[in-house]
Automatic annotation (TrEMBL):
SMART domains named among the record's database cross-references: HTH_LACI
Record-level GO BP terms: response to fructose
Keyword DNA-binding among record annotations: yes
UniProt GO MF annotations: DNA-binding transcription factor activity; transcription cis-regulatory region binding
Entry superkingdom: Bacteria
CDD domains hit by this protein: HTH_LacI, PBP1_FruR
InterPro entries: Fruct_sucro_rep (IPR012781), HTH_LacI (IPR000843), LacI/GalR-like_sensor (IPR046335), Lambda_DNA-bd_dom_sf (IPR010982), Peripla_BP_I (IPR028082)
Every HTH lacI-type domain range: 7-64
Name used for this protein in its record: Transcriptional regulator
Keyword Transcription regulation: yes
Keyword vocabulary terms for this entry: DNA-binding, Repressor, Transcription, Transcription regulation
Stored SUPFAM superfamilies: lambda repressor-like DNA-binding domains, Periplasmic binding protein-like I
Range of residues in the leader sequence: none
Amino acid sequence: MRKTKRITISDIASLAGVSKATASLVLNGRGKELRVAQETRERVLSVAQQHHYQPSIHARLLRDSRSHTLGLVVPEITNYGFAVFSYELETLCREAGLQLLISCTDENPGQEAVVVSNLVARQVDGIIVASSMLNDADYLKLSEQLPVVLFDRHMSDTTLPLVMTDSVSPTAELVARVAGKYADEFYFLGGQPRLSPTKDRLEGFCKGLEQAGVELRPEWIIHGNYHPSSGYEMFATLCARLGRPPKALFVAACGLLEGVLRYMSQHNLLDSDIYLASFDDHYLYDSLSVRIDTIQQDCRQLAGDCFEMITQLVDNQEPTPHQRRLPASIQWRHS
């Protein structure tokens, strides 16, 4: 089996017929400044292009004391919201000449600790994380070594830099507007109750019922996890218990709604009279026969603020404000 060999500056110098020092000056963009002849510069660059030469990132790291790499830690990359956020953040990094390394935790704190350690070992300049941890102790300690920005989730009264969407206010507004029509039956399907997105969206749901003058019944609140299969199972169990679909349902995330819609499709319920609402929007919802009111996060702004904060911290600047809660919009599809 043929062993590949990465081309080096020494190889480029030999092929171009110049010294290694001259080749290094040209390839580092200092040839003209230090008066290397134009013909020599062009020859070195031509040879480098022909042989697909790329400078060593390790050499750049030693020279700059930075890796020009950021780490992103998310619970699940297939989650639509995290996927869009990752795309927007990667675009910003690429345009700035930075590499983004993405790791997934599967909502497992133990796995999260491992992937964060791996990113630190790869000498990333900073980490952006949607954490599954219950407290910020590990990240407070880590922030003494490198910048850390939390997003999407908060941990109690953390003092770490944070960017997230306000989910309480828009959820309350949506539920308050429609709850009066479904005062006798309005269910909430959420993820793990220990996670801040679940707590915040449930708080908004309860506030919305209160504003509409609807008394919450304990059996209306159902928890699982944020995988689509959990949404499917919770909705299937609810339909079996009621002997029919519920009259109204608020789903705490796009992934859970995916499971609900799969059950409804399999059981010919897409034309039923159920009122559906969800946190997180998806462009495909405009193409469905069933109407779904949604709360839409601005993933581009979320990524932009995270990028701004982490790069400021890497440059030893203090972002202001260092904790940001962004507004969300309601997409009304029911008449």
